[in-house]
Design brief:
The chain is an all-alpha fold. Helix content is 69%, strand content 2%. It has a two-stranded antiparallel sheet with strand order 1-2. The N and C termini lie far apart (96 Å).
Length: 610
């Protein structure tokens, strides 16, 4: 009879929807003498904690005359699910000290609590204790250990645990595969999936999610398409918002925006991450206008942007110089008290800089409470872009005083700034400091900055010597920088070598071919000019028409070369003609050396678009 009552009470407890109902059952358990005996008390603890009344659950636990392992587990689980790792660990330690032996559930729950907070030290200790007590081969405890190591980025240790497991279920395979994918080991994640399939296991939506992330990291669109097709064919795989968002992200990051956009538009439910993935896709692929339009649609739908989507918006604004929209995004970040971390602040600095407001960029930098190397690099690069090399150097020196160690990106920003300002000696000095004092091996970007610095100053012989001393193979950026300097300073002999090296590397930029052609034209080497044009024609390459965008009173105005569609075109041309007349009156003579030409194409009265 008592057993039947106990089972009935357990059923009632699990079906209870509110605290008063649980309290009544609690009272009945006391009156009938069931309280404190059997496993009913663990169900009572579970019921209180499930409804959010963890204090009541603890009161029940503390009043138990004798606690079995089920009651200990129920209370530890309650703390773990609430995110109270310290309380869960404290109870686990007390459980051990009172001589109650933990079981599989205990170890699994405590390891999960450590994984949630990335507490590797405590987690490893508990895993060792589990192995010592004979739970090393338990699939649930082993999977919890895998999860711990994955969350803490210790995939070598995770793989050692995985390889020693005698039995592996789907959750175990999924845990290790997603761990590899999330820790940048995408290729290994795909290999694990292959092993999983060879063991006769089919993947669920969680496995597919990990695979999609791996394909995104690898840039393997072919495999991504295959996985997408597999999910469509399998009726038992749920295409929830997480899977759909991952697919949108994968296609967008692989440049297939038409597929990403189609998937996104068909999503019945979109969360903030879904919107952010599509906005980021547009921004990172250069479709700034689409990114900003989608942000407007996102807010119209009632979905509030998070810091990640606003960072993408700031990137889009920086691409087209739309400072008004960028200011709004910055203001939203500040007003909504969103997580204004180093990434957000750096995006704000970069946006203001590329929109032409160096003072606003500096103000944003000064207001950043915590500055990492990326923040310093951004502001140094901002001053360099605006030709303020001395100020960039001053900021670099301030950075050193804060004991923040400059990295390779810091020196790239500094050398670029010094190059744009023509500070040759200072550039050479800090390049040597980077190599000799900071022991940073120069990358192609550092060398390109130095070659550009020397070539701009007409020191192309020194630039060529630096190229010859490089321990890495010079890429196209190196030779283009040298060739540009040769063009500007009439250094034909070295320029010819640079031009031939550029052509050997088969550039995919029409502007580079134009530079090579201009060099040969300036040397009156018409056969080579014709050969370059032949290559451009054969590959179907055309020089992209010049385009500029400017913001006037919060509106963007785009100007394309030879485009007459602007509504104020006639007025603009009258102003340009007036400026042209005034410039010629003070003796200005336009340079025509850089115009693509040959002996039959001499252009007179070059019109300069301002």
């Amino acid at each position: 009879m008592g057993l039947a009552v106990s089972k009935s009470l357990k059923t009632l407890l699990m079906a209870s929807k509110d605290k008063p109902t649980v309290a009544k059952i609690h009272a009945l358990m006391i009156l009938t003498g069931i309280f404190g005996h059997g496993n009913s008390n663990s169900k009572l603890i579970q019921s209180y904690s499930r409804l959010g009344h963890i204090e009541c659950a603890r009161q029940v636990f503390d009043k138990l005359p004798q606690c079995g392992v089920a009651a200990w587990n129920a209370m530890i689980i309650a703390y773990s699910r609430r995110g109270a790792k310290t309380d869960a660990l404290s109870l686990y330690r007390r459980m051990e000290s009172e001589g109650v032996r933990p079981d599989s559930s205990t170890y699994t729950v405590v390891l999960k609590a450590c994984a949630r907070s990335s507490d590797l030290r405590n987690g490893e200790g508990i895993w060792r204790q589990a192995v010592d007590h004979g739970y090393g081969d338990d699939v649930f405890v082993g999977t919890a250990a895998l999860n711990l190591y994955s969350k803490c980025g210790k995939m070598e240790k995770a793989m050692r645990v995985f390889d020693k497991m005698g039995r592996r279920d789907l959750v175990c395979w999924t845990t290790v595969m997603t761990g590899l994918a999330q820790n940048g080991q995408a290729r290994e994640a795909v290999e694990i999936y292959g092993r999983m399939r060879s063991n006769g296991m089919e993947g669920d939506e969680v496995v597919m999610l990990g695979l999609i992330q791996a394909c995104t990291t690898l840039g393997n669109l072919k495999m991504g398409l295959s996985i997408h097709g597999y999910m469509i064919r399998k009726d038992d795989i749920t295409m929830d918002v997480f899977v759909q968002t991952s697919l949108v992200d994968m296609y967008a990051k692989n440049g297939r925006l038409e597929i990403a956009s189609c998937l996104f538009s068909r999503m019945l439910y979109k969360n903030v991450i879904s919107w952010g993935a599509m906005i980021s896709g547009y921004a990172q692929n250069g479709f700034a206008g689409d990114a900003l339009q989608l942000m407007v649609e996102m807010q119209s739908s009632g979905c509030k942007p998070d810091s990640a989507s606003l960072v993408s918006v700031l990137l889009a604004c920086s691409q087209i110089g739309f400072m008004k929209f960028g200011k709004s995004a910055h203001g939203y970040l500040v007003r909504r008290l969103l997580h204004f971390d180093c990434v957000s602040s750096t995006a704000v600095i970069d946006m203001y800089s590329k929109c032409g407001s160096l003072s606003s960029a500096r103000k944003a930098f000064d207001q950043t409470s915590f500055r990492d190397s990326i923040s310093w690099n951004a502001i140094i690069a901002s001053y360099g872009t605006h030709g303020a090399g001395e100020e960039a150097l001053s900021l670099f020196l301030q950075m050193r005083k804060t004991n923040m160690k400059p990295d390779h990106a810091t020196f790239a920003s500094l050398l670029s700034a010094l190059s744009h300002s023509g500070l040759v000696e200072k550039g050479q000095y800090w390049f040597n400091v980077m190599v000799n004092e900071y022991k940073i091996q120069p990358s192609e970007k550092h060398y390109a900055c130095m070659i550009d610095l020397l070539s701009r100053a007409g020191k192309v012989e020194e630039a060529r010597e630096l190229i010859d001393s490089m321990i890495i193979e010079p890429g196209i950026a190196i030779w283009v920088a040298l060739l540009s300097g040769c063009c500007n300073h009439g250094k034909l002999l070295i320029g010819e070598t640079a031009a031939k090296k550029v052509l050997e590397l088969n550039p995919d930029d029409a502007g580079i071919y134009a530079l090579v052609s201009n060099f040969f034209a300036s040397a009156r080497r018409w056969d080579e000019v014709a050969e370059v044009r032949k290559i451009m024609k054969k590959t179907g390459m055309k020089k992209v028409p010049g385009c500029s965008v400017m913001e006037v009173k919060g509106k963007l105005h785009a100007f394309l070369m030879e485009d007459k569609s602007h509504h104020e075109y006639e007025e603009i041309m009258r102003v340009l003609e007036k400026l042209d007349y005034e410039m010629k009156a003070i003796g200005y003579v336009p340079e025509t050396e850089s115009v693509l030409h040959d002996q039959e194409e001499v252009k007179e009265n070059l019109r300069i678009a301002i």
